[in-house]
Structure formats: structure tokens, C-alpha cells
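hey so u asked for the seq, here:
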Amino acid sequence: MSNSLFSLKGKKIVFTGAAGVLGSSMCLYLAVNGAKVILVGRTGEKVNNLRDEIIQAGGKASAYAVDVTDETKLEELKDKIEAEEGTIDILINGAGGNMPGAVIRPDQTFLDLDSNALRKVIDLNYLGTVLPIKALLPLMLPNRRGNIINISSMAASRPMTRVMGYASSKAAIDNLTKFLAVEFAGKHGPEFRVNAIAPGFFLTEQNRTLLTEPDGGLTQRGYQIISHTPMNRFGNPEDLLGALHWLCSDASIFVTGTVIAVDGGFSAYSGV
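ran it, C-alpha cells below
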């Protein structure tokens, strides 16, 4: 079997939400394995620093500061990428997150939910995936093939306490992934694929204080998660790289409409 089946060499990959803990690890990996990574993030300094890190590691990257919920800015991004690259091969939608107002704390009820914060979370996670696809799909059409990878979450299929807004918007990502897999294959050709990766629990800047104490021990929520994870640990950023590589490569050429769980067995465990 040819090694080219898993090759990423020369693939042009747009990655939104590139500068986060998980995103930066993925981008660096893709670049050192031969892809040209087009970094997109809201903060210019962060994506520029990541671009420089990739280049220093021998990879190829460019960086753009864009708000993925701003359709006008995304159209401008499309024009810039088209001028520089012509077409792209892969779009990875990594932008997303949560905010305190869209969380229902143990001392609150549903009536305390901040609808404005909820709207922002849905905009970031759902429209922040839909709008980049809408803007950048035209850069795949000339190739008669395309590959879109969305980032979902365990919260999509296993609704959890507190994070109602985040979980609801990630559930919409799972549905969108399956819808677009059918839509694109039917209307643009069988070599257009749409899949998603659903990470389990990884320590990031956003959730570290929710899952761990200042001394490194587990909070009650962290303990509950680990006790329901058969592999008995949180994920490390590098744990996502194998699934990512497979979905980016031609090794997964007949895979579309799937949501790949990378969760240490969390979704398989009933708790008994």
C-alpha cells in the first residue's frame, strides 16, 4: 500500500480558532507533516505568533485575524486566500467556546439564564462554523473535491449540567455535519466530505478552573468526569492528532457524515 494514502504533503488547510490550546497543537502538527496551514483567529498577535512558531519548526503557514461570526470579514478573507493560494483542500472549523452568562450554575435555575450571552455562544459555535463554510466553499469547488472537518464536543451527545448554551450549539454542529455531508456529496460530487471530531475532556484555558483546583487536584466536576472516563484521565492535545490526520488524508476518502469521538471511552460508559 502506498504511503501517499496518509500523506498531507502540499494540502492547503484553513484552520479557524487556530490559536487555542487544541487548535495550535493541531496546526503545528499539520504543518510539520507537509501541509500549508492558513491560520485564522480573532486575535492577530496570537495567530501571528503561531505562524512564526510553525515557520521556525520548518512548516508553512500564513495568518489572518478574523472574527468568524462576521460574514463581511469572512468574504474579505476568502478574497485574500484566493489571491494567495487559488484554491484550498481542507477547512477545519475549530473556533468556538463558552461564556459565563450562558452557564446555569448549581445555585441558579433556568430562569437565571442570560439570553444575550446564550445568543453569543450560539453565534460563536454554530454560525462561527456555518459562515466560514459558506464563505470558503467556493475555494474548493474548482477542485471538484473538498474536505470539511468540524470540531464538536462530548457535550453535544451527552448533555451535561451547567453548559446548556455550549452543549446545545455543539449538538447543532453534529446535525450540521450530517446535513452538509449529504448536501455537498449530492450537489457538488462524491469527493466532497464533511466530518467532525468530538473531543472528550481536555484541560484548556477555558475549563481548567472548572475541572481542577489551584493545587492541581480535581474539583467535584473533574472527579465526576474522570470517574466516567474508562481511560481514567483527561485528554492531551496530541491525543487528537491521529484522528485529525486520518480525516485530513485520503485514508478516509469514503468517510463522510461521521462524528469521531476522541474521549477516552466517556461516551461508551453508562456509569454502572
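The domain at 3-200+235-265 is CATH 3.40.50.720 (Rossmann fold). The chain has a mean pLDDT of 94.
lmk if thats what u needed
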